[in-house]
Design brief:
The structure is a single chain. With 90 residues, this protein is mainly α. It has one domain. Helix 2 runs antiparallel to helix 4. The longest helix is centred in the middle third of the chain and has 32 residues.
């Protein structure tokens, strides 16, 4: 998964994916395969939201550390977003 640089771009990607699935589902002949695709899409959205919440929690926690504490764990302040996203997507 790509690193979401800002909330607006992440929401834009999510909006485009939802729009594509909804348009696809409105086509006549909504069968089992489409229901399964909808379930997969829904689970992907839920996983993305969970990852985003975990990212924000890790970002807040790491941002509260001092530069000395960050150096003790081997990261710099500029590494915080990358480390937080790596942790959130595990």
């Amino acid at each position: 998964m790509r690193f979401p640089w800002n909330w607006n771009s992440a929401l834009d990607v999510l909006r485009r994916k939802i729009h594509a699935y909804v348009v696809d589902m409105l086509i006549p002949g909504f069968g089992q395969a489409r229901k399964e695709r909808f379930q997969v899409m829904f689970l992907a959205i839920v996983r993305f939201i969970q990852s985003w919440k975990n990212y924000n929690a890790a970002l807040r926690e790491l941002s509260q550390l001092t530069d000395r504490e960050l150096a003790d764990v081997g990261i710099s302040r500029s590494d915080i977003p990358r480390v937080a996203w790596d942790q959130a997507t595990r």
